[in-house]
Amino acid sequence: MYRFVVSTVGTSLLSNQIRPKDPKSWKGLLDKTANWTEERIKQHEPEVINIILDLKNRAEEKLKSGNILEIKDASAELNGIYSLYKDNVDNGKLDTHWLITTETYQGQTTAKIIKDFLHKQVNLIEIYTPDQLSTENTANFKQGIDDLIDWLSKRYEESQKDGYSIYFNLVGGFKAIQGYMNTIGMFYADKIIYVFEGESSKLITIPRLPITLDYERVKKHKVTLALLNAGASFSPKQIEDENIEESLFTEIDGKVTISNWGLLIWNQCKINLLSEDLLIFPKLHYEDSFKSDYKRIRDKKEKLQLQEDLAKVSNLLSQSNGNTSVLKEHPGFRYDKYTNRNDDVAHFRVTQGLRISCISINGILKLRRYGKEPEVNKNP
């Protein structure tokens, strides 16, 4: 079975290249700028750019040497990958690798060194940087982890379909990210790998735990969680009144949004919860014709996408107090009225070929038909 290997990337490959004769300030400057982007370093500590480039050149030279012990000693990430293949990376020629890194200059530099080194030895190796992933502040870190969970969820589905075995290589990377990846791995990784430090450097592999989610506890909050996942935010009082488990949400600046763990759990449950009956969302009303169209859908994933879009539409309308101009401005929905009719019936897209017809009355969007564009347009 082919492997899909996800490796968290830190900065040890750079810091390991510092020599005793180098200026003592180098280590402090690297630590100071560990969470900084290239632009910020250039603005405030421009000399660090040259330090990083010097260390990058040293790292590349060491990796080119071909000495396996030196390669593993130089890079925690490569230590994990080499150990996975029993020091023969040719065993991974058919495997796919992704390097997960922060948006920091040091992280990006390290990931590129590793990618360039491995790209001829494995089937595919790419770098993925979750949006705003940085350990510098809580808000950015949360958004980055949310983006990472969403990305991993999609990759997980694709890898399962293609028959890959998924490995999380957590030997390298920032400690905060490793902590999250340990838990995420219990849902998405077939195996998590570490390497003991020291001369023996033994590989340890942790299989996925047999975790079973309590769907019923999540199911009773499915409308709220679907809206939170669509970008909605609620007051703490609303969440308190609904008695939602604390781990599923987080409060920032007086507003409640879905938490990293809430998103992780929701991604596991949503295919089942959103492929059942139509959910009742604020600002939406379902005509009998729309309900009939929904019942004719046989594909669970089609129902999932439809209900996720309905949650997004509901959230946008709630924010605009029912004003449909927000749907017209949204590039995904392209809401517009039919030009060849005397009434106010409109339509918006779900996918390139699927449409929903509707009419807005007193701030409520009444959904009339759902289906392929020609069929909906013929009788909206």
Please describe what this structure looks like:
Helix 8 packs parallel to helix 9, helix 11 (222-229) crosses helix 15 and helix 13 (260-273) packs across helix 15. This protein has 380 residues and is α/β, with parallel strands linked by helices. Strand 12 and strand 13 (364-372) form a beta hairpin. It has a 6-stranded mixed sheet with strand order 3-2-1-4-5-6, sandwiched between helices. Strands 9-13-12-11-10 form a 5-stranded mixed sheet. A two-stranded antiparallel ribbon has the order 7-8. It folds into 2 domains: 3-207, Rossmann fold; 215-378, 2-Layer Sandwich (YaeB-like fold). The chain has helices spanning 12-15, 25-32, 38-44, 47-64, 68-74, 76-84, 105-118, 138-162, 175-188, 215-219, 222-229, 236-242, 260-273, 288-295, 300-319, 325-329, 373-378; strands at 3-8, 96-100, 124-128, 165-169, 191-195, 203-207, 249-252, 255-258, 284-286, 336-337, 346-349, 354-361, 364-372.
